Amino acid sequence: MTTVDDMLFQLGGVPVGMNGIPFGPSSQAFFVDPANGSASNDGLTPQTAVASVATAYAKTTSGNNDVIFFIGGATGDTLSEALTWSNSYTHLIGLSSPLPGLGQRCRITGGATTDLTSIITVSGTGCIFANLQIANWADADADSGALVVSGDRNVFHNVFVAGMGHATPAARAGSYSLTLSGSENLFERCTIGLQTIIRASTNAEIIVSGGEDNRFWNCEIISYSDTAGKLMVDVNDMDRRLEFKDCLFFNMSTNWSQDLTNAIDDDVATTHYIVLRGNCQFVGITGVADTVTYIYGAGPAPNAGMFLSTNPTT
Description:
The chain is an all-beta fold. The chain is 3% helix and 37% strand.
């Protein structure tokens, strides 16, 4: 068993283990290496890594602050079935570039032949996910997405969440990249959405179906759509506050042919707050939200055109 006393390993001369990761007296570290690992290994050291996140996750104990380290590289972890992350205080850390962006090399995906409805459902509490790509390439004619978060108080740092990785599910109104119904979750320096597959329906990159006090800090919500009614964020249910701080909402269309009508669709009738803090920016979009009653922006007098970016006409 690898205990907290043994968790500082050297990978390429760089120590990994305790940097900002919670731990307890019984915490264990497990390693995943899709290129060199084996299901028969114990996963307790980089040299004896397992090949899949699912194998490592099965070794963890809920509430133990166990940590799974994912060794990045050219080979990703393609799941054969969706993974439910129900163990609380169980963390998944990608050992790859810490810079925010697209296509992190610690990849957890579903292939076109697997047709998973979602890749990971996080129902546990207090988990940390960092430096990862979670992507769904399913090609079935069914609603699908990448990440479902129903648990509370989880942190996602530098995670690329890409749903609708094939044109067929991207043409369905119920598809998504992220579905969020838990409370007090933080997404920081994450990219949510995909710019390589056109969205040909009125779907949303983020669906908020419940929860309260969720926050997106310094994130990019991206899409590629010529459908005016396509959304970046579809808010169906929530309480208290939903916060976006220093976020970019960016839609690319073919030859600038069609801006999105609104970035946010707000269907919640009861009192709530959708707060746009700092320097949020909307590109390829003509309106912040269909209903601005509960939208709160920076500055003394927010209005329907706040944060909208325009390009020169000449």
